[in-house]
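Final report, Chapter 2: Outcomes

The project's central promise was a pipeline that accepts a single protein chain and returns its three-dimensional structure in a standardized token representation, suitable for archiving and comparison. That pipeline is now operational. To close this chapter, we reproduce one record exactly as it appears in the project archive, with the input sequence first and the structure output second.
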Amino acid sequence: MTSSNAIQSNHQSIIDSILDYAIISLNLDGIITEWSTGATQIKGYSREEIIGQHFSRFYTQADLDADKPAMELLRAKTEGRYEEEGVRLKKDGTPFFANVIISPLFDSQNHLLGYAKITRDISVRKAEADRLIKLNEDLARLVVERETANRELESFSYSISHDLRAPLRHIHGYIDMLTAATTGQLSEKADRYLKIISSASVEMGQLIDDLLAFSRMAKAELRASSTSLDQLVSTAIRNLENTTTERKIIWNIAPLPEVLGDSSMLLQVLFNLIGNAVKYTRQRDPAVIEIGSLPDENGSAVIFIRDNGAGFDMKYLHKLFGVFQRLHRAEDFEGTGIGLAIVQRVILRHGGRVWAESQVNAGATFFFTLKKNLPH
């Protein structure tokens, strides 16, 4: 074997070792003169049956009608290179999505000898790209749907604020007038009925307030900044004084870390959790409420609020943070079942998590995590 033949054989061996690409040579008329092993693997034709055939047999009928093969060779010749991504056909007629590059081949005198054509099957990549496009379209649709839902929620909140409050005020007002006008004239049963109606109207008003607070937490802009939890705890306890002045409560409050968060939202979290601790220790004398922190969790502060109150059965934990979900009878402890839902929504919006541990009649502990405010 001459050195030139050896070089040519070695060159062919290298080409045949590349299986991810179909590497072929075309003469000036587009007739196939060389065919790699990768071309057989991708397109299905053996070297013996395809050499001497025109490369247009890989194209769809629509492309043939548009004389696309000739156009590709012309552009490769005039522009120095042609590349596109499109549908090609295998031997059995199966379409696949291909990346195609056609380059002109010249001799030392710059005479055009033919063309080198490289094809790669990118069907998997194309399918993944199409999937991402669909996901983006779905995401855009969800954004539009969410914006629509937010507008509907705002309309609903407006309706609650105005359309429901007005008749509720009338009901409460007329109950007060009826009670005053019939003092001493009604039976004990009728008087009890009036008190039940009055209590229900007050409860309805509280429910409306809680629903509005819950909806506001969903759409309010989160303004994160360095926040002192110690100050927020003090403010929350001060705001609860009307429910604690007649109570004997032992407060065990440890220093808390500074966190990164929206102070007004986090105040609502602490108010709700400390308020629950106050409420559910009503039958304890003394009540013991502990507020502190645990070792960091993945760089986040872990805050807890523990009480020695009524507690709850852990088998109902999955209901704890749901809207309108209550684990105690209304006759024992008042509430609308929205406070803990607000807590969870705020903590999730801050990128944290919230959970609880408890035993019936042995108190409850609520935990939540927040990003710490790291010094620069």
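Archive annotation: The CA atoms of residues 259 and 372 lie 4 Å apart.
This record, like all others produced under the grant, will remain available to the consortium after the project formally closes.
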